[in-house]
Amino acid sequence: MTSLKHKIDFAVVFTVDKANPNGDPLNGNRPRQDFFGHGEVSDVAIKRKLRNRLQDEGESILVQSDERRSDEYRSIKDRVDSVEELRKLLTKSKASGNDEQTAEMIASDIWYDVRAFGQVFAFKGTKMSIGVRGPVSIHTATSIDPVDISSMQITKSANSTTNEKNPGQKTSDTMGNKHRVDFGVYVFYGSINPQLAERTGFTYEDAQKLKETLKTLFANDASSARPDGSMEVNKVYWWEHNSKLGQYSSAAVHRSVNVERVKDDFPLSIENYEITVDQLDGLAEEAYDGL
Known about the structure:
Protein name: CRISPR-associated protein Csd2
InterPro entries: Cas7_Csh2/Csh2, CRISPR-assoc_prot_Cas7/Csd2
Number of domains: 2
Number of strands: 14
Strand content: 25-35%
Shape: flat
Pfam family, one: Cas_Cas7
Organism: Virgibacillus natechei
Region (Disordered): 157-177
Helix content: 10-25%
Largest sheet: 8 strands, antiparallel
């Protein structure tokens, strides 16, 4: 394994076509929007998709979705407790700084998402709380233009439970609503910090796995809210600096990506947009189309 010796930045451009990329549970599960009407997909939702894809590729993941779990454990705590050495450290009545560092190293070595994104180990009944800072940071995805959201009322063809007063009549739970973004081009950015990578053991090979995962972010992610093909990765940009600190700030690198609407009519596809990248001297840039 090769240690990560230089800073990495990345950007992902993707489209949403008649889908709900990230519903807001506090707003009737409508697609998320900011104050100005631009669509949003939270960093947490993006990390969930990355974890799922990495799990598909055989990586060991601590924070697994219950419906996609690849083991018998039904919670994060159960998965952590299955590692005897880690369980003993977390339940010690008095822990030293070395104990915390040991627990961090064990968890990072076992689970890809811990050494990439970090994790807080604080459970009921444990004596020690550990916070792992991961080297991979990801921004919230935001649409280039404000998005239009369509809503439709839907009905179930069958009752969930029998109508006790009149079995032949539908119950109130057969009515509902479904929301979608008609079309939107979204962008999110991320960075990999080599100093934090040293602490968790995140390697250059781990970074390459992340890059490949970004290209197929929406594979095996279909649902009734996101039909297969309704969300597509269009471009992945990957920059490798020549040092741990980097020649440029992450903000400057991220600003180098320009996604602009080139037609005045209502955008219906990625063809309505032009994607360009400003060249930064001395910075190695790679560009990939989504797979």
